[in-house]
Write a structure and sequence with these properties.
The complex is a heterodimer of chains A (about 80) and B (about 270).
Chain A lengths: L1 E9 L4 E9 L9 H9 L11 H11 L11 E9 L2
Chain B lengths: L2 E3 L5 E8 L2 H5 L6 E3 L4 E10 L6 E11 L9 E12 L3 E6 L19 E5 L12 E5 L2 H9 L2 E8 H5 L9 E7 L11 E5 L4 H13 L16 H5 L23 E4 L2 E4 L1
Antiparallel strand pairs in B: 1-12, 2-3, 2-5, 4-5, 4-11, 5-10, 6-9, 6-11, 6-12, 7-8, 7-10, 13-14
Classes of the chains: A alpha+beta (about 80), B alpha+beta (about 270).
């Protein structure tokens, strides 16, 4: 089981979300853990809205709340790191 | 009415786009967990797409320090400040003691399946956005608040998650609220309770006061006042009734005046 920690700074409020995303063998996933890491790493230091459309889709489908989708230009991806690998 | 605020390690856990409802609901570990989220319009969610092959199951976890509660509260409510979606039909349940999250430790993704089948409330059927929603906790919850130092709860969908029924295709239920990480405490999750009283102890003290006079003369030795042994055979009572001890202890032939620092033989 591989886990990744993503931190997103919502620049207007100054609030930072700390999200752990888990790749468990039983989970239905369209991408592998390696593909996820490569995809997310390209977003570091960018706002979510500046990421590729594929990365944005992953954020909105799995990582952020629906209420935050309209604010993705405000969400700065600060870090993506693997934990407990 | 005392309040207990949830620990900041409260968590939004979610499973998204699983091909079966069982895959979403019964997952051994959450796919995504956020322990720092300020608010969610979908703190709890049970949903499936029209094709019936993408199921979502979201749960909310929180813990409260109830180590200071030793007597079962008279009543208690869980207060959650609503945000955006108001579908309701949710329920508060007990989280197993083995879950990592508690009142000083953040929940982890593996706590997703530490939910129990013990309900701490009835089904909540209405929800208000931008106001506190007060959920009455049941007798089981009140008992656990007194007996457990760590009061761990989850809020989940009632009809599909708690009752384990597969949602019909194309259905979505979402309910949202503010979490601990929202700035300030005016919208934080909390448990508010009315303290209970140790009524049995108070009654016994009152009864004893009636039966023992101020001069320590015992006025009664009926059953319920002294043990049944003395009720059956009053002669066994080791003192003379209606007079002050210890000068008149049964069988004593010499009486003493007790003084501070010694005793004087009369």
């Amino acid at each position: 089981m591989r886990q990744f920690r993503i931190t997103i700074l919502w620049q207007t409020s100054g609030h930072t979300d700390v999200i752990t995303h888990v790749f468990h063998p039983d989970h239905t996933k369209s991408i592998t853990a390696d593909e996820f890491l490569a995809l997310m790493t390209t977003c570091v230091s960018q706002t979510i809205s500046s990421c590729s459309s594929e990365a944005q889709n992953y954020f909105t489908s799995y990582l952020i709340d629906e209420s935050q989708i309209s604010e993705i230009s405000d969400g700065l991806v600060q870090s993506v790191e693997e934990i407990n690998a | 009415m005392p309040d207990i605020y949830a620990h900041s390690g409260d968590a939004a856990m979610r499973m998204d786009n699983e091909t079966t409802w069982a895959g979403a609901r019964d997952a051994a570990t959450a796919e995504t967990i956020n322990t720092a989220i300020a608010k969610l319009n979908s703190s709890v969610k049970a949903a499936v797409n029209a094709g019936g092959d993408q199921y979502d199951c979201y749960r909310y976890f929180a813990a409260f320090d109830t180590s200071g509660i030793t007597v079962k509260p008279e009543s208690a409510t869980l207060k959650l400040y609503g945000f955006t979606y108001t579908d309701a039909q949710i329920v508060v349940i007990k989280v197993n003691s083995g879950a990592t999250g508690d009142s000083s430790t953040d929940y982890v993704a593996a706590d997703f399946n530490q939910t129990s089948s013990t309900a701490y409330s009835s089904e909540i059927t209405s929800w208000t956005s931008e106001a506190y929603n007060e959920i009455t906790l049941n007798d089981t919850a009140l008992t656990d608040m007194a007996s457990l130092d760590e009061f761990k709860i989850a809020v989940i969908d009632h009809d599909y998650d708690f009752n384990n029924q597969t949602p019909p295709n194309g259905s979505t239920r979402r309910t949202g609220w503010y979490h601990v990480d929202e700035a300030g405490t005016s919208k934080d999750p909390l448990v508010s309770y009315v303290a209970g009283s140790a009524s049995g102890l108070t009654y016994s003290q009152s009864e004893a006061a009636d039966l023992v006079g101020d001069d320590y003369t015992i006025n009664s030795f009926k059953s319920g006042s002294l043990s049944n042994q003395y009720d059956r055979d009053p002669e066994q009572v080791p003192f003379s009734l209606g007079v002050r001890g210890p000068r008149h202890l049964r069988g004593r032939t010499t009486s003493y005046t007790v003084t501070l620092g010694g005793k004087e033989k009369k």
